[in-house]
Amino acid sequence: MSRPHVVGVVGSLREASYTRVAIEHALEAARETGGTTELLDLREYDLPVFDADDRDAGDAPDVTRRIREGDSILLGTPVYHGSYSAPLKNALDYCGFDEFENKTVGLLAVAGGGFPITALEHLRSVCRALNCWVIPHQAAVPRARNAVADGAITDEGIDERVARLGEEAVQYANIEPDPPCLESTENVGADD
């Protein structure tokens, strides 16, 4: 059996992104657990605002191919106004069942404040609509400026939770998902 391939998607465009630090840490833990990894840093791609009439705009074919090739996908986002970022939403709009159905997905949110949970709930709903198997464990980095310094997570508890997400992305990469959930069967237009 081949080693599970974990793709970490960074939904932040900031140069000094705490989200990137956290996804890189999760990917490091995935490698240490036996997986192969790839960082998909959205700031490195030309992804125009999604237009259903031009699904191959910019670098969209490369982004969707990289996500499709993952056995597990880690979605990392900064929290903006209680939800996930526009760059991540835009990248997900280019994707559909071909990229996500029956895939294992791990969720990570980074917040300047203390409550990043709603962004994780919103991403979990999107993943259900794409018929993913979302890892029950999710990682949150609240008060990021106090938990990340010099490109590393400095809070021991957060460090452990983020690493655990990477480990579980490998551990559950080939899980047999349940039958499609209601959200995915009612996701009209996801694959048109």
Describe this entry's structure for a reader.
- By secondary structure, this protein is of the alpha/beta class.
- It has 8 helices and 8 strands; from the N terminus they run E-H-E-H-E-H-H-E-H-E-E-H-E-E-H-H.
- The chain has helices at residues 18-32, 60-68, 86-94, 97-100, 117-129, 144-147, 156-171, 182-185, and strands spanning 5-10, 36-41, 72-78, 104-110, 133-134, 139-141, 148-149, 152-153.
- Strands 1, 2, 3, 4, 5 and 6 form a 6-stranded parallel beta sheet that branches. A two-stranded antiparallel sheet has the order 7-8.
- The longest helix has 16 residues, at 156-171.
- The model has no long low-confidence stretch (mean pLDDT 92).
Please describe the structure with a list of short key phrases separated by commas or semicolons:
globular; two-stranded antiparallel sheet; single chain; alpha/beta; 192 residues; 6-stranded parallel sheet; FMN_Rdtase-like_dom; NAD(P)H-dependent oxidoreductase; Flavoprotein-like_sf; 8 helices; NAD(P)H-dep_reductase; 18% strand; 8 strands; 39% helix
